[in-house]
Design brief:
83% of the residues lie in helices and 0% in strands. By secondary structure, the chain is mostly helical. The chain has one domain. It is elongated, with a radius of gyration of 18 Å.
Length: 147
């Protein structure tokens, strides 16, 4: 899409964005903020902080993509959240593992799970479907205009 078309597209979807999607975006941004604050105030004793930095950037990027109407990101979040819970379930002693998780990990896992559930609610699903249709409409208009 051209720059002008892109601006029009994002303005159009912004007008129809449900409050629920805005709320989830805030939750995911909160995830990034929690991890960042935790990383600064209570640094872990690992030599490399790459994983912490990765997840701070991941949650922030995911929040932005969700807000912009990228539906595929819902599935990516679901994979990340499910992988985290599979890790816990497959542990020799899941209760012990949960007890060993830091508070930031517990909170962000819970927020991630809540976000996945809310992003697949009917109102969110309908909005993402309408964003997809709107995107296709703009792309067709762009191709027609270029011809």
């Amino acid at each position: 899409m051209s720059t002008e078309n892109t601006k029009s597209f994002y303005n159009e979807i912004a007008e129809s964005r449900p409050q629920l999607v805005r709320f989830v975006t805030g939750l995911l941004g909160l995830n990034a903020a929690i991890l960042l604050v935790w990383w600064i105030l209570i640094p872990s004793d690992v030599e490399s902080n790459g994983a912490q930095l990765f997840f701070i950037l991941l949650w922030g990027t995911i929040a932005y993509a969700i807000y912009r109407g990228h539906s595929w990101v819902r599935y990516a979040i679901a994979v990340v959240v499910i992988a985290g819970f599979v890790e816990i379930i497959n542990a020799h002693a899941p209760g012990e593992l949960i007890g060993k998780l830091s508070w930031d990990e517990k909170i962000t896992k819970a927020i991630g799970l809540l976000a996945v559930v809310l992003l697949f609610y009917p109102i969110s699903h309908r909005w993402y479907k309408s964003v997809k249709e709107t995107r296709k409409r703009y792309e067709v208009a762009q191709k027609t205009k270029a011809s």
